[in-house]
Amino acid sequence: MPSIHTAKPISRKRPVNLTLSESLVTELRGYTSNLSATAEELLTAYVEEQKQARTSRQQQADQTVAGWNALYAQVGSFADEHSTL
Fold first, then answer.
1. Which of 8, 78, 74 is nearest to 43 (CA)?
2. pLDDT for the residue numbered 4
3. From CA 78, how far away is CA 68, in angstroms rounded?
4. CA distance 69 to 62
5. What is the DSSP letter of 30?
6. DSSP code of 2?
7. Which terminus has fewer CB within 10 Å in the chain: N or C?
8. CB-based contact 64:27 (threshold 8 Å)
9. Segment 35-81, tens digit of pLDDT
10. Cα–Cα dist 50/36, whole Å
11. What is the pLDDT of residue 3?
12. DSSP character string of 24-71
């Protein structure tokens, strides 16, 4: 697994309980001597991916709204012709 090197401020560490299968932990020990650091790197990357996905969805929603608003400005509402008021 490639190491992710990002410039980040040193933050306070907090102990958490994490339950993993014994066989997975044994296998992981063959890949890393610092399971906490590896988990933190992977979780940091996961959080960043989720933030980017959320931003992308928001941008797509904003573009959709802008498109509908532009259409409404040009042709009005489809329901205008059928109003009973």
1. 8
2. 58
3. 12
4. 10
5. T
6. P
7. C
8. no
9. 999 999 999 999 999 999 999 999 999 999 999 999 999 988 877 77
10. 21
11. 57
12. HHHHHHTT-S-HHHHHHHHHHHHHHHHHHHHHHHHHHHHHHHHHHHHH
